[in-house]
Amino acid sequence: MSEIVVDGDPLPFVEGQTVAAALVAAGRVAWRTTRVGRRPRGVFCGIGVCFDCLVAVDGTGGQRACLVPARPGMTVTTREDDDE
């Protein structure tokens, strides 16, 4: 099984999974919060329409985790305090 690095921690994934699928499979259903109300957000629509699953991938912010295929060694940074 391959791994991505999420917030500094290794996270296994199965080939073909998106970053969001790998996070959910690891038990993380929310990985950021909204600026207003600090409401938890994770994958909602799963097809890239809602933008609730935003992460930074290899230093590029604003990536929809439900659309980004997980790749070995990829670095993912989640945001717990922002609507980036």
Give me a quick take on this structure.
This protein is mainly beta.
Topology:
Blueprint lengths: L1 E5 L2 E5 L5 H7 L6 E2 L6 E2 L12 E4 L2 E5 L10 E3 L7
Structure in words:
This protein is 8% helix and 31% strand. It contains 1 helix and 7 strands, in the order E-E-H-E-E-E-E-E. It has one helix at residues 19-25; strands spanning 2-6, 9-13, 32-33, 40-41, 54-57, 60-64, 75-77. A 5-stranded mixed β-sheet has the order 2-1-7-5-6, covered by helices on one side. A two-stranded antiparallel ribbon has the order 3-4. The chain has one domain: Ubiquitin-like (UB roll) (Roll), CATH 3.10.20.30. It is globular and about 35 Å long. The chain has 84 residues and is mostly beta strands.
Indicate the low-confidence ranges by residue numbers: none
Silhouette: globular
- Percentage of residues in helical conformation: under 10%
CATH architecture grouping: Roll
Report strand %. Answer: 25-35%
Largest sheet: 5 strands, mixed
> How many strands appear in the DSSP assignment?
7
Q: Average pLDDT, to the nearest integer?
A: 93
Give descriptors for this structure.
5-stranded mixed β-sheet; Ubiquitin-like (UB roll); mainly beta; 1 helix; 31% strand
